[in-house]
Fold each of these.
Amino acid sequence: MKIRLRVLGLAFLGVWVAGFAVANPKPAPDPAVRAPVLEAQYAPPAEAVEAHVLGRGETLSEVLTRAALGGPDLSSLVLAVREQVDPRRLLPNTSILVRRWTESGSPRTVEVSLNADSTVRLSRNSVGWTGQMVVTPTVVDTVYLAAVLGEGGSIYQAVLDHPGVELPRKERESLVWQLAHIYGWKLDFSRDIRSGDSFRVVYQREARPDGTSRASRVLVAEIVNQNTSLPAVFYDAHGDGGDYYDEKGRSLRLQFRRYPVAYPRITSNFNWRRYHPVLKRTRPHLGTDYGTGYGAPILTTADGVVSFAAWDGGYGNLVKIDHGNGYETRYAHLSRFQKGLRRGTRVKQGETIGYSGATGLATAPHLHYEFRRFGEPVDPRTVRLPAAPPVPRSQMEDFRLLTEQRAILLSAASLPQPEGPLRADALLAADALLEADALSTN
Ligand SMILES: [Zn+2]
């Protein structure tokens, strides 16, 4: 599903620079609000609502039958659902609301909630059932935060306590998590942050009427850590969802993730002289072992091309990935490969390439991970890892222009803040920029 929202700029000299999504017109005013007031009368509710939940392994037809919508209604209902969504792809615990006329007990509408944003609403007319996809409207907000950390202060607490912004607590936590992720290779929030450090963030989000986000993104941020400025500008250089760069277009990430599993637990380190438990002799251990249990997803540590995915002696089921510039990673003892993975498959960093096991020379399920440079095994935990690719030279002009605009946005989240968090002039400039720059979600 691809929704693109165009944003009309609309500045408030308060907290928000808010834009309204033109794609979602305002709801019509409720006629009841303007109708003349009548004497209160007792009237039984016109409809009764029943809630049903799709059980694990249950089909939509089964739930509908259980809800007394079998018989002639059933095929028409299922057909109407199928026009909007494949009923076989409904997840367990999908909620299905049936509204009936109280008088006759006959069904009026059926609502199938696909997720927080989308509901299939089915209604009955004289010929049968028709379906409609109802999508929750959203507005695009741009939120500015800035703070100087005092003694014992943390970015987490400063974002959580930030005055003057209307963000639910969950959103604030998710924003800190996003920041920690963006700066993950440069800073450890729990260790490196000092009193006197500061941060500024411009955060854009698509908000639902209940205040939760459908999508959100840090557009630009700056952390000043022990007098060193660390800017982060979001830019989509490769058309693959974008990344964060410093003001010179250098990636904030390293090319390789540190760990090939989600919950790393190292059971054996890189070691030129190790006693091998299966071979019962000293043999160099040219990789790192991660205790994983059986069937844990194995994640590639960098973008690359699969150069090998097959059985290889003591390695058991082995995947090798070529990352260019002489870098190669190996993932051994897998119980199975990811479906469709073969020599020549392109993989993205963090993609699941297989599942842990104990194939080949292994006494228990674990992942044996190797990192090689020009064929030479090196310890990935001590080697100096290369940075992820910078903004390509051909896009530097575009990136420089964006960075200038982002710097203006950032100045709207200015420090210090004697009368509120925003400066009017900076806000107006920021607003003009945002008009041309809508958040798009995929
Ligand atoms: Zn090993």
Amino acid sequence: MKLLDAVAESVRMTPDRRRSFLDTTCAEETPMRRQVEELLARYERLKNTGQLDRLACIHEEERFLGVDFSEYYELGAEIGRGAAGIVYRARDLMLNREVVVKKLRKPRFSFPEEIERFLKEARTASALNHPNIVHVYAFGEHQGSPCLAMEFVDGQSLAERLRLVAPSPENVARTILKLARAVDYAHDIGVLHLDLKPNNVLLTKENEPKIGDFGVATWIGFRDSTASEGDIIGTPSYMAPEQAEGRTTDIDRATDVYGLGAILYETLTGRPPFRGESPQAILK
Ligand SMILES: Nc1ncnc2c1ncn2[C@@H]1O[C@H](COP(=O)(O)OP(=O)(O)O)[C@@H](O)[C@H]1O
Ligand SMILES: [Mg+2]
């Protein structure tokens, strides 16, 4: 029996049944048994402190993370990779269409905060329904790792495009106008993106810009219990002063407007407003 299967099975049982189940599936005093018990203890701790409730998709009685992606999506080639996740081309087997699946690198039990962040990414993005924002279709798990499925944008990122061609001012104006309207729409729904930059804007082959990567997005007025004043999240070259200085309570719509300005600057000049050897150097 595999480690995560053993944990997933036993977590639904009463402590007595759990012990006899574990005794028959993984012998005492083995590394696997120790790991299973450690994960179970972690799970109980989270449950007791109410932290599991915040991960609303985790049900004791059911599967841990909603739908099992391996039943719906066939993962293909890797197309992108960031700090937390890997992005794959994929096929929706039911609807028979191309999609993209972003998969957290870590298995579902390892870091509840990261899973929560990822779920927040999925929830903020999926609240939005706009032609210039990448649509999120589903959240679930694939082989033990949390995943989200989204619209496949057949093209390249604005950052990649800028490395190949310098767009005309008319083109820049058209693109920025669309992005600004999409951001305004997101704000009206109550979502702040907070990581607007050329890397996170995807362009279709028809040059239609689509805002993606809601990895640090949040709700207007939402005070994250895990983030505290002084925490810096985002990308230094494109961050508004309040974000760069970690003044989390000052972060608002204007923070995204700054990000739009930074994109405008880079599309016109070919470089971001601020550059430096290190994040600290840029912030200065
Ligand atoms: N919906 C999508 N369609 C096509 N390519 C995508 C899509 N989402 C992400 N990618 C590719 O994967 C890269 C990383 O995705 P992103 O969501 O920005 O992840 P990260 O949080 O790791 O920065 C993007 O720059 C893009 O090249
Ligand atoms: Mg990104």
